[in-house]
Amino acid sequence: MDLNEAIEARREDLIALTQDLIRMPTLNPPGRGYREICEYLRDRLAGSGFDVTLVRAEGALGDSDRYPRWNVIARREGARAGECVHFNSHTDVVEVGHGWTVDPFGGELRDGRIYGRGACDMKGGLATSIIAAEAFIATYPDFAGAIEISGTADEESGGFGGVAYLAERGWFDPARVQHVIIPEPLHKDRVCLGHRGVWWAEVETWGRIAHGSMPFLGDCAIRHMGAVVAEMEASLFPALALKRTAMPVIPEGAKQSTLNINSIHGGAPVPEEGYTGLPAPCVADRASMIIDRRFLMEEDIAQVKAEMRDVLDRVAARRDGFDYTLSDMFEVQPSMTDRAAPVVTAVSDAIRKVLGNEPDYVVSPGTYDQKHIDRIGRLKNCIAYGPGVLDLAHQPDEWIGVQDMLDSAKVMGQALKTLLGCADAK
């Protein structure tokens, strides 16, 4: 039985594995079920001959005794020395949201699709990498080098309790890992070279509290924030729309710089559940806004920040009593792997062989854990490649196609043959 046949023979196992993973509601925030899914993966991979380690990201952002950040790393050594290929998948999923017509944690199989939160992003990719690795090991038991598979926490909220924590502790040191494939849902014929940069910040405007019947005695921070948003609409958003990148970012709209207003809060807090009275009549003395700025390889992070401060200073110059603070939350530089890198060429050749068409080289509009492997681990030979349609991520009725997973598993298997010295074998 050749490698592709070994993968096809695992079709039902692939379906069941994906369904099992979906049925674990690893919601982030707050970070539920991480230990459960790591133990499941530990048992599965130990049964396939992997040495498995569970690592809690103690002290990392988000880690707590109530919601500990658990990660699993499994390694299978080959018959002789060689390089290591690491498949990294995050185990967390975002909130369910509204509009579902199926059970979001049911893992329903219908018409060749498996439905559920995380099916596409990215439990289907995790299952695919496991099947690819197990089929490869069974077909080429004398392979050189090593294969690693990890399931990591918190990618959806920055990855600081997952890949960042592991990278800081040497798990992605180029001396022990040489190639990384992250099975994010970029489609089976695409090689994702990297991602845009991101800067999150909080803008706060300040006022003075007063009785709501006499607002002239106070100073409304919400009105000040409204002036900030108006200035962003008038000057910043049009300027960002003119910035374009040579990076092959998808979809087309993400080839420009973008900014999302993530949230705005101001005034009286939301009443506790069960409270049925009216709010107190007060002028808001504080308002806050979280901004999510995505920037391009051609932009400098200092200039990105200066553009927002310029907006605030323009408002201040014409608005009496305007006072603000601008605070960094986190930032990530853009990342893009060279198309000549070994993992890129191996996966590209595998796409040609398995699918019969030229790969498409893309860059993700949003960041993923490549940022930590690149910037903290100093490992440049990293890409995202996996099954699934990116537009389905975080949507209701999220799904992954079974045939797409099988095809991607074959691509991963062929890439393993090249990277671990089995390219000329059967």
From TrEMBL:
One of its GO terms (molecular function) is hydrolase activity. Its cofactor is Co(2+); Zn(2+). It comes from the Bacteria. Residues 194-318 form the Peptidase M20 dimerisation domain. Keywords: Cobalt, Hydrolase, Metal-binding, Zinc. Belongs to the peptidase M20A family. This is Acetylornithine deacetylase/succinyl-diaminopimelate desuccinylase family protein.
